[in-house]
Each structure stands twice: as C-alpha cells, then as structure tokens.
C-alpha cells in the first residue's frame, strides 16, 4: 500500500502545480480570445475595417485554453458523464467499473499520443506558416520569418494529451487505493487545490 501512496503523492503534487499554472495561462488565453473577438466585431461593424489577424489570434487562444483546461476538468470530474449505472451498482463493482473505464481512457490517450500527436504534430499543423498572425515589432523567428509557425498553435494538443495522461494515471492510482479500502487517506480533489490560481 505504501508503494501506491509513494507513486501517488508526487504525481498528485506535480499535477496540482502544473494544472494551477495551466489554469492561469488558460484564463489569460480566454481573456485574449474574448478581447480579440470583441475587437474584431468593433472594427468590422463600427469602423468597417477589421484586421485579418484577430480571427487567427482568437483561435490560438482557444486552442491553448482547451489544451490546458481539459486535464483540469478531467481531474475535477468536470466532463459530462452518465453515472446512473455506477450509482446503482454495489460499491466494489462500481469501483471496478470506474477503474476499467479509466484504463480504457488511458489506452485511448496513449494511442492518441503515440499515433496521432507525437508522430504527426507537424502534419496537424500543415508544417506551414500562419497566414496573418505575425510576431510583434517585425521579429523574425524560424522558417516563417515574422509569421507564427502553425505548430505553435497545435502544440496545445500535444501538451493537453500529455497532461491528460498524467491526470489519468493519478486517477487510476486513486481508484486502486479506494478499492483496497484506503480511500479515507486520500485528499479530496477539489477547488481548494487551485485557490492560488484564481
């Protein structure tokens, strides 16, 4: 049992810190996204001259917000789920079903990481350059010069899946500990973990 807690506690602390930082970044990305969309509406309908980079900038913020908030939502139980069967089953059977579903989710995430994102993140990005999103002050970086590379946007998928895998492993360890009757020693996952990120 001490081995399980020895694996869980460092992972739990790591996830708490990383997800709190991710939440700050995601909230900032959301604020930038909303500001860009409102700015685009203002420029288009009031001044009749919308800048062409605001849509792509808003998409950049949306992708990073989703990539960083999905692991936090998963850890906090914020994904949509149907739990009627889980509630109707006896505690041990329900716990085993939850463990099975977490193992299936881990398998899907590992397949997504290995086959999709890890090997093809450049393919997802089109290995291209942004059509309108440019570095400020004419700065030139990499093969695209003063334009953003698309993989800066789509790296959010890779980061999100990696964080989801870490959270999934933590949830599996927590579930095994609950199944062996030591769940009362677990710290609840709640909003208190992220109070500093608000």
Could you give a short account of the major beta sheet? 2 strands, antiparallel
Order of adjacent strands in the largest pleated sheet:
1-2
The outline comes out as elongated
Alpha-carbon distance between the two ends? 34 Å
Enumerate the spans where pLDDT stays under 50 for 5 or more consecutive residues: 193-198
- Strand fraction equals under 5%
What is the residue-averaged pLDDT? 81
Give Rg in angstroms. 21 Å
Tally of DSSP β-strands:
2
Number of distinct helices: 5
The arrangement of helices and strands along the chain is: HHHHEEH
Q: Report helical residue fraction.
A: 55-70%
Task: Describe the protein in words.
With 198 residues, the chain is mostly helical. The chain is built from five helices and two strands; from the N terminus they run ααααββα. The protein has a two-stranded antiparallel sheet with strand order 1-2. α1 runs antiparallel to α2. It is elongated, with a radius of gyration of 21 Å. The C terminus is likely disordered.
